């Protein structure tokens, strides 16, 4: 099996290089309005944002920042198939503007924007971030009432385009082979994720400055979402590509991917990471199988039995739908220079095989 991966240098407010209804899934983490590290970016997009911040008008700046993101959401509506899912990792912001401290509820504003475009909101996910400091409060310390809760979580907002789910041909292999294990379903489809940090190996990114200027999230998050909401053969889009975490997750999960990134430097750095992708892919898939076998051992110790056996692995499974699971790993990956796109685009081709066992 082969997958293709394309990344464009460009403004995600205009995804003209991507055809209508060409992605089945969106997984992305946009810049968060009213987080100071993104002020310069938003001001470059609309100078009125910088003027509002200087004038101490936080609400006007917040609305103007989201107006820029709204143009991206218009493009996502166009390129996502009917029934496709959009997964947006977004955090709220706390900030003092003109000596007034408040929270800016980015997740609520994004939810409103997608609903207004006809997307159906689905139950969302909270994931717990590591605290930025040992202090668990902001404000007046130990004296009530002017201390504030520290935000240590972010949202994964989930939306479906249109009123109906995607349809597949009965018994579609690409869907059943992409199934997840019973115990994975129970963890992944919980509305609170507390264990995502460090669960999957990731690749090092040498340029700390570039990482600081990205909206990077742990590899585990896009990998789970891709496994949860797409099948083999599907295409995953990330309009805020950054360090390429979503593309790495798509490669490991055996899906195609598309990405858009404003800064060409990110694409140049990504090429340096290609050689390590096969080993990353193998370790990710192997970890899933090993965790399943640990689950099997625990369940048997509890005196519980299994009714079904996996077709491709020597292990039992809980449900009939798990029997045909076939995990994939990247066996080779190459950059494709076909003369299209020039320096403004990168193309990659990955070959995948079923997970091999030593």
Automatic annotation (TrEMBL):
Pfam families: N6_N4_Mtase. Its EC number is 2.1.1.113. It is an enzyme of class 2 (transferase). It catalyses: a 2'-deoxycytidine in DNA + S-adenosyl-L-methionine = an N(4)-methyl-2'-deoxycytidine in DNA + S-adenosyl-L-homocysteine + H(+). Keywords: DNA-binding, Methyltransferase, Restriction system, S-adenosyl-L-methionine, Transferase. Belongs to the N(4)/N(6)-methyltransferase family. N(4) subfamily. This is Type II methyltransferase. It comes from Natronorubrum sulfidifaciens JCM 14089.
